[in-house]
Design goal:
Blueprint lengths: L1 H27 L5 H12 L9 H12 L13 H4 L7 H28 L4 H9 L2 H9 L3 H16 L3 H9 L5 H14 L2 H22 L3 H12 L15 H8 L4 H28 L4 H15 L12 H13 L5 H15 L1 H9 L7 H21 L2
């Protein structure tokens, strides 16, 4: 009876958030992202997949279904199939049902972590922690897809823990609708793990490529990169350095009049971070005891070097942050300075004040600073554990 009451309480809290956002949607839809996913699915449903990256066509469908123009669908064509079933409903109802789907993803992610990774952590506690993290609420509000990628990366992590490398690679490959995050998250392990991981990832990549070609034709191989290149100069695209909590956003905000310098620093910093994640993955290959930390570091690194990043994408931080907290609770001989630094930084990035202040000031790029700290301290901890085991 007590377990039932706890479950009911956790699910009620999640249901309250979903219902609240669903009620807000009609009055806020012009500023939310879900309409452009819905419009893209309608374009494909109408047999116009070859015109998916035509701005005029997207504006036409956006105006028809949401009464606005701008904020365009900029993901690979295959992702429209995820939103396609929802496009058979009116926009407001589709948003409400998508919110229910996202809620199920959150529950499934929490359950996976309890049953396959953490053990001592109840899924109800994890779900409550998820709902207190501002980027998760932003993703739910926007009707975005970051929670889907979080679920897929969690599945991939569980598969790797169970030595199912082909499945892990395939699951990570299914996250290529956000390729700028999925690729750097798995790349270090592609270089350090057995070939099965690479085969799994490559197989999924080929499947989603063929699905995209079926939707938009072979010309999408050229049309999609061209669309992405021009998007930064489109006034209503909603792409700004200040919203990107990554290296590109940070250097762009810090050097508004020196774009070339910012690009060079971004490339150099990204190369350094990628090199460190590859090194950690290699250490984890020789010492399974630090594999979880190496995976956490890879996700931190993927966020930092991602080319494009929105505030809701920081939902992905939940997985590495939970792995770090579990390490702090169970790890032995962790240096005092490391423990204090991790606890302080995790508190700063997790609690709402940082996110609210930076969003209000339109300086969310600075949210990458605590992520940088977590990346660096995690790397140092991987090296310490690897050296200690020798």
């Amino acid at each position: 009876m007590r377990t039932f009451a706890k479950n009911l309480l956790a699910l009620s809290a999640l249901a309250f958030v979903v219902i609240y956002f669903a009620r807000l949607f009609p009055g806020m839809q012009e500023g939310l992202d879900f309409p452009h996913f819905y419009a893209a699915a309608r374009i494909v449903r109408d047999g116009r997949g070859r015109e998916l990256y035509d701005l005029q066509v997207q504006n036409q469908y956006l105006a028809r279904y949401s009464g606005r123009e701008g904020i365009y669908f900029n993901h690979p064509p295959f992702e429209t199939l995820i939103y396609l079933p929802f496009s058979f409903l009116p926009l407001s109802q589709a948003y409400a049902l998508w919110s229910v789907f996202q809620a199920c993803l959150l529950i499934a992610t929490a359950w996976l972590l309890e049953t396959s990774v953490l053990g001592r952590w109840s899924w109800r506690i994890l779900l409550a922690l998820f709902l207190l993290f501002a980027p998760v609420l932003l993703d739910l509000l926007q009707g975005q897809d970051s929670l889907l990628l979080l679920f897929l990366l969690t599945l991939a992590f569980v598969a790797l823990e169970q030595k199912k490398d082909f499945a892990g690679g395939g699951l990570a490959g299914c996250g290529l609708f956000k390729f700028h995050l999925a690729v750097p998250a798995v790349l270090p392990f592609l270089l350090a793990k057995p070939r099965k991981l690479a085969w799994g990832f490559a197989s999924a990549a080929i499947v989603v490529l063929l699905v995209s070609v079926l939707i938009s034709g072979w010309q999408v191989i050229v049309a999609y990169p061209r669309f992405l290149r021009q998007l930064g100069s489109v006034p209503l695209a909603g792409i700004h350095d200040a919203q990107k909590a990554n290296l590109r956003g940070l250097f762009g905000v810090m050097m508004p009049g020196a774009e070339n310098v910012a690009v060079v620093l971004t490339l150099l910093g990204s190369a350094l971070i990628l090199g460190l994640t590859v090194h950690s993955a290699s250490l984890a290959g020789r010492n399974a005891g630090c594999a979880r930390l190496a995976f956490a570091q890879a996700v931190f690194g993927a966020i930092l070097i991602s080319y494009h990043l929105s505030p809701h994408d920081l939902s992905l931080l939940l997985l590495p942050m939970i792995l770090l907290v579990d390490h702090l609770l169970l790890g032995e001989n962790i240096p005092r300075a490391t423990r204090l630094t991790l606890l302080l930084t995790l508190s700063v990035i997790y609690l709402p004040p940082l996110h609210l202040v930076l969003l209000r000031a339109h300086l969310y790029a600075y949210a990458c600073l605590p992520v940088l700290v977590l990346f660096g301290v995690t790397f140092a901890e991987v090296r310490r554990m690897s050296a200690h085991s020798r």
